[in-house]
Amino acid sequence: MNTSSIHGPEVAALLRAAQDHRARVGGDPHELIVETLYQHAAWVAGRAVQRRADAAAKATLEQKIDRIVTSRRWGFPLMLLMLTGVFWLTISGANVPSGLLSAWLVDAGHPWLRQVFTGLGAPWWLTGLVVDGMYLATAWVISVMLPPMAIFFPLFTLLEDFGYLPRVAFNLDRLFRSAGAHGKQAMSMMMGFGCNAAGVIATRIIDSPRERLLAILTNNFSLCNGRWPTQILMATIFVGALAPPAMRGLVAALAVSTVAVLGIGLSLVVSWALSRSLLRGEVSTFSLELPPYRPPRILRTLYTSLIDRTAFVLWRAVVFALPAGAVIWLSANLKIGEVSLVEYLIHALDPVGLLMGLNGVILVAYIIAIPANEIIIPTILMLTVLVTGEVSAGQGAGVMFEPGSEHAVKELLVKGGWTALTGINLMLFSLLHNPCSTTIYTIYKETGSVRWTAVATLLPLALGFGVTFLVATLWRMWAG
C-alpha cells in the first residue's frame, strides 16, 4: 500500500480501531502472545512427550518452589530474608579472621618492617612513605576486606548457581516496568552488586537505547564490592552497638540489607522520574525464562568466588591502596607553615561535612578514593589518625593507627568526633556518591557522551548530599 495516499482522518480512524481492539484484548498484547505461545508449546509437549514419574515429580516440586519464591506475597519477604541471612553470616563470621590478619599484618608486621628499613639505614622520609603510608594502607585493606569477601562471595555465588538470583530479577521485573524501565534492568542491577562497571557493560542486553541509558544512569545505586566493607564496618560498630549484645549481629545485617534495598528503591524512583522527563518513551516488553533449579557445584563455587571474585577485587584494592597510602602520607607531611596540606583541605570541608552529618575527613577520603571504593576505610582511618594525633613517636604524620579490634576502631573514630549519625550517614553516602573512576570511564565508553557521563556521575552525588543533609537535620531536630 502506498502510505502517501493515506490521509489524516484515515490514520486517526485506524489508530482508534487499534486502540479499541487493544482495550478489548486487555493486558499487554506482547505478554499475551508470549503466554499463548508457551501454553501451546506446553500442550504440544504434553501430547508428544512421555515423562517418567520421578521426572514429573521433580518438575512439580520446582513449580511449587517457584509459586512461593516468585509470588507477589512471599517473593519480596523471602528476598529480604535471604539477603539479611547472607549479611548476618558475613558480619558474624568475619570478625575473628579479620582480627587475626590485623594482628599479623599490622601489629606485628608494621614494627618489624620499620626495623628492617631502619637497619638498612633508610632515610626517615622513605621509611614513612613506604612503611607508614603504602604498607599500612595495604595491610588495612587486606585485613578488613579479605574475611568478609571470602564469606560473602561464596554465599552469593551459591545463590546464583542454585538459580535463585534469576528469580529475584523476575520479581523485580514488574517494578522496573512500572517505573518506565526495561525489565532486563533488574539483571544489570544484579550484576552491579558485584561491580558497577560490569553492571554498566551488562546493560548491552537491553535493545532499546532509551531504556539502556536508564539502566546505565541508575546502576550506581547497586552496592558494588568495594562498598560492602564500609557498609559492614559502619553497621557493626555504630548501628549494631545500639542493640543488645545478643542482637547486634542481626541488627547490623538488617541495617546493611536496608541500605541495599534502599538502593533498589532509588533505582526505581530515579528511573520513573527520568522516564517521565529527560527520557520519555514507551516501555519495551521481554520474556524471562527461569532456569531450572540445580544443586550448587561446591568446588566450582569456591573457585569462582575466591579466585575470580575475591582475589580479583582484593588485588584491585591493593593496587589502588598503595598509591593512595603514598598520597596520604605525602599530603600529611608537606606543610604550609605548621599545617599540612591535607589538614587545610579537611578544615575547609568540615563545615559542609558537618552540615551533612559527616565531616571533612570523610569528604577528603572520598576525593582521594575516586579510583576505587575499596580504599575508603583505610583512607578515613589514616586521616582520622592525623586529625586526632594518634601517631607513634618518630613515625611522622599520616601513619595509620591500627587498634586491632572493632571496639578500638570505634574508639578512634569517636575521638575524631564521630557519632551514630556519622556512621549511619556514611552508610547512606557510601550508597549515594559518584561512581569510581573505572565506572565513569566505562559509562563514557558505553554512551559516547560527555553529557550523560556527567549526569551519571553527578546525579547520585547530588542525591547523596541531599539525603544526608535531610537525615542530619531530622536527627538533630529529634535529638534536640
List the helices and strands and how they pair.
Blueprint: H1 8-25, H2 29-48, H3 53-69, H4 75-119, H5 124-162, H6 164-178, H7 185-192, H8 196-202, H9 209-218, H10 228-239, H11 248-275, H12 298-333, E1 335-336, E2 339-340, H13 341-355, H14 360-368, H15 376-388, H16 406-415, H17 420-431, H18 437-447, H19 450-479
Antiparallel strand pairs: 1-2
Helix pairs in contact: 4-5, 4-11, 5-12, 5-15, 6-7, 7-8, 8-18, 9-11, 9-19, 10-11, 10-16, 10-17, 12-15, 13-14, 14-15, 15-16, 17-19, 18-19
Strand order of the largest sheet: 1-2
Report the sheet-strand fraction.
Answer: under 5%
| Class from secondary-structure proportions | mainly alpha
Helix count from the secondary structure assignment: 19
Q: How many DSSP-defined strands? A: 2
Largest sheet data: 2 strands, antiparallel
Span from first to last CA? 75 Å
* Uncertain segments: 1-6, 392-404
Oligomer: single chain
Average pLDDT across residues? 80
Helices and strands, in N-to-C order?
HHHHHHHHHHHHEEHHHHHHH
Dominant shape: globular
Helix share, percent: over 70%
* Rg for CA atoms: 26 Å
Word description of this protein:
This protein has 19 helices and two strands. The protein is 74% helix and 1% strand. The protein has 480 residues and is an all-alpha fold.
Notable characteristics:
480 residues; mainly alpha; 2 strands; globular; disordered N terminus
